[in-house]
Amino acid sequence: MSAILGSGEHRYRVVDNWAKLPDGWQLTDVASVAVDSKDRVYVFNRGAHPMVVFDRDGNFLRSWGERLFSRAHGLHIDADDNLYCTDDGDHTVRKCTTDGKVLLTIGVPEKPAPFMSGDPFHRCTHTALSPKGEIYVSDGYGNARIHKFTPDGKLIKSWGAPGTDPGQFNIVHNIVADADGWVYVADRENHRVQVFDGDGKYETQWNNLHRPCALCCCGGIKNPTFVIGELGPAMPVNRKVPNLGPRLSIVDARGKRIARLSGEDGPGLASGKFLAPHGIALDSRGDMYVGEVGVTDWKTNFPDEDMPEVVRTTRCLQKLERVADVSRHRRISSDTPRDECPFSTR
């Protein structure tokens, strides 16, 4: 029986076995997910077919990106359905059409900047767009920087350094921007989300998180809401400690938690559990798609267990269907204006 997570207006039913892949295909790790204006779901993954596209019912539509991407990591979609694909394997960001035509490449494929030099890129992780279309890139594994580019890919400025102080990072893993231009950064191993203005001035930080990994800004223009994917423990000494994730947290624009989904009893394959939430997107109805890197994290989570084949096929992608609280809320439908939908990403 499918699990239901959350409470009140933040209730979700897990849609088990949602993705219908062609015979013999594997997604392996799903690094990130995006949803376009027609509710088509783009799954940026580390299998043989890096971009796999489904309709909202999980039916396979097409794939692309073969021989283009080295290692999928981040995916962002803009209001015109252009996809920004961050490849930490070859240190690039590529802006693509929904059928895979490359419109812009930032970075030089397979030529990383020196480790911790501050120059773009050394294993970049994700992108976000300012209200003016400027491109923010989190450069997080071999750097500790945020870079800001013009819409056509010219570097404007960079900020950040290794460390734990405000404005410093310890694996800058994800980034989003809201309609007012605020920039939110998942500072993963510092266990926080940092908030900056559009020019990189530190404003505040959100704490009480555990290894924030995925970050999704949603909830319309006036009152944005954020979904944060948190990883579980990475050390043997606290691997089995409860209440550390993996899980999803929903917070308001001040970082106050308003809901939490799963994570009390650690990772797992059962309905309602997570392995390693790494990318999150929502469709026009408020349904949530969660990409997980369960293959990469399997031995961290389960060092003494063989990995089931389902982890390589479809278990690294989950759909959570929003459940209406009919006694208090009207159901969100595809006819609801995007800026009124409480969990619209567009």
From TrEMBL:
InterPro entries: 6-blade_b-propeller_TolB-like (IPR011042), NHL_repeat (IPR001258). NHL repeats lie at residues 128-152, 160-199. The keyword Cell membrane does not apply. Transmembrane segments: none annotated. Pfam families: NHL. Keywords: Glycoprotein, Repeat, Signal. It comes from Bradyrhizobium stylosanthis. Residues 327-346 are annotated as: Disordered. PROSITE patterns: NHL. This is NHL repeat-containing protein. It comes from the Bacteria. CDD domains: NHL_PAL_like.
